[in-house]
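Hi L.,

You mentioned the student needs an example of a multi-chain input paired with its predicted structure. This one should do, with 887 residues in total across all chains.
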Amino acid sequence: MSEAVPVPEAHADVEHHAAHHHGPPTSFIRKYIFSIDHKVIGIQYLLLALFSVFVGLIMSVLMRMNLTWPDHKWPLLGSLFKVGAPGGQMSPEFYLSLVTMHGTIMVFFVLTTAPQGGFGNYFLPIQIGAEDMAFPVLNMLSFWITFVGLVVLVSAIFVEGSAAFSVSINPNSAIAKWVAKYLEGGGSGTVGPIGGWTGYPTLSALGKIAGPGQGAGVTLWITSIAIFCVASLLGALNFITTLLNMRTRGMALMRMPLTCWSWFTTAILALLSFPVLLAGGILLLLDRHAGTSFFIPGGLVVSDKLLTSHAGGSPILWQHLFWFFGHPEVYIAILPGMGATSHILSTFARKPIFGYRAMVFAMFAIGLLGFFVWGHHMFISGMSPYSGMAFSVLTLSIGVPSAIKTFNWLGTLWGARIRFTVPMLFAIGFVSLFVAGGITGLVLGQTSLDLSMHDTYFVLGHFHLVMGVAAIFGMFAGMYFWFPKMFGRMMNQTLGYIHFWPTFIGVYAIFIPMHVMGLVGMPRRYASFAEYQFLTKTHPLVMLVTIAAIITAFTQLIFLFNFFWSIFKGPKASDNPWEATTLEWTTTTPPPHDNFGGKLPTVYRGAYEFAVPDAPDDYVMQTTPDATEANVAADGDGHTGQGSTGNGHDGHH
Amino acid sequence: MGMTATTETRAHSAVKDKGLGFGGPRPNGNGGRRGPNGGDDSGGTGYEGAQFRIGAWVLVAAVLMFFVAFTSAYMFRASMSDFVVLKLPRLLWLSTTLILVSSVTFEVARRAQRRGDDAIYRLWLAVSLALGCGFLVSQLLAWRQLVAQGVYFPTNPFSSFFYLLTGLHGIHLLGGILGLVYLLWRALRDARELRELRESATKKRRALTDAVGLYWHFMDGLWVYLFALLLFWR
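Structure written out for the whole complex:
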């Protein structure tokens, strides 16, 4: 059989193709909708987050307006939400449902989605020199499951608002009956679920009998979170496998950009924390729909009725499960921002990142410690003082790796000839906000202080600064930095500066006064403070915060305009407009379908070789071979102990 | 549980290479998918398949955390005063036997594949699949026995946890069964088309088998753990 040789070859090629080497798709749907290209999926995630962040932003402005002018009637609001804002005046339930939806949308569909799913998806494979993620189809599924989660969450507003859940299909059909049963016969006359993003039982576990805002909307809210958990898990699996398996030649772990380390750490956190939330969500749904008593204690009197159908459960159990997820979630939101900030600071300070190795270990330390501090959200749940003490000490100890990172950022900036580009400003803003928000974490982490500050505006100010706005600044920095690579055009600098300064000052004007309100004793999640005499003197502050919030919100329209305008009209970007060193800047702008045009790069050095003496430019790309090192490599592995492990080179100045 | 799979992963994955302190460019663990370790970049056709093994380990970690969460909920709930323990159906011992044996038969199949003995591989794969399905049937029958005794999902906390844990384990095992079906389908296809597989394709086949095997053994161990939890933690 003379043909014997080519035949198996052809078969092997089939195997090969089926597995990975997907060519660029041609149809619109395969290219832009159900794409398996990590770059398209990354942009899809970013657009989903962009939509979500504006929904969440509008909700927060509505809340501020209600707090500041509680008696004012807003006709537009009244015509949009006939149930929630009759005559244009918000009902307290409507306010609470805004709290819930704002929190859930922001935490899950913005802070978890954009930094990891968006930027991570786009740049992790490119920065490690891979053609795509390890499981491209799974990647596509992750996005579309996230999308379904968002649709379900948004629908929670509408089913809760309608007096009876009506689907456009035959109401007597089995599906309609099942859906109606699942949604407990429809909403309860408010707009959206009102349990907050933490959804504490017992009220959230009881269903409609617990009052308005605890009916169908909460069911959909939990369902949405469960769907999101699955999507995040699939994404995390993909990230970890890609990073471990698909680094290109020479891309040793300690040569990776810090962004990759941050996405990797984040993926590990997501992998280990989301299953716990999923478990809690399943138990909560079972309590609501299957008559179990995981979270519902006996002897409850709800709406003047004694509940006899449940007994023996513990609402504290939910808090444990929720916060075991919830605290790592905080780091899921912030770690990618830390990675992007390190990356961008080093690039525009034109200096190697100070203490590369310490940065990596600090990131892992934060991630690890993050799993042992969930109890600090529950200091007033009646836990033993000894547990409280342990949680408190562990919480405060996170200050150590956080300080390491902060000082390393400052060390990177120290004595540098800084290029104050827009991404650089946002990265410096990140450091500022992280410090300002993190420092109050040391206050709240102490049991004695937390007892009085728990659930006040102090907490609100703290976590919005450190996990909300700081993470958002990380995203802005990343967006301005990577926009040229993603869309092939530069964003407008001037508009960028006009976006930065009001935003930077605005967020401080919003969240610093909240600390003061909290110290005065203003509680979270109250729709109105008109009845509380002791809070009247805070009214000027409330007004200040609201005005700052409105101005800051409108400033974001500048970003929105800049973003879409620059996609089409911005000046063309070169392959490496920032003179950066990592692999995404070695390929064309925007990158081809397989990222590197068929030839994967080889990496010879660490990610942050700036200010290199004797280099023709002041930086050396990761792919640039060093004359002597190349010889060493050619000779074999004789000199493995010396040479450049790459990063830091703290001696280069 | 999955010891051989462990060794394989170590040998092939990037984990072994911490990349600390070497000079010139070398492939990381395996240089992406471009050929075997140290292969050139000019378009080798080698296929590592390591991502299936790594992916399986990562998946196992996630599923483990899922059940760790339920375990802690179970222990928490079991410490409350109204917790009563029911007598478990004896049929569960049959389930346990079936799934333990299925792990052994899978291992027989996997070793046959290593040797290149594809007929034996297919046979024992099918046996493992049958045993897995038998496990699920046995679990369902155990449920029916409890239902016949009037023990339902919301009857008491223990019954809630019993149905929940067995049900969720069953759902996850169903994923393993799909994996076995997929392996069997691939094996039958290869047999029908009389493929002469090149080394790269063989590697991928083995990696897939290892990945499914890891998950299957994990499901086995998970069941033994859950059974022990329900039997002894009271």
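You could point out the following to them. Chain B has one domain: 3-10+48-232. Residues 1-47 of chain B have pLDDT under 50 and may be disordered.

Best wishes,
N.
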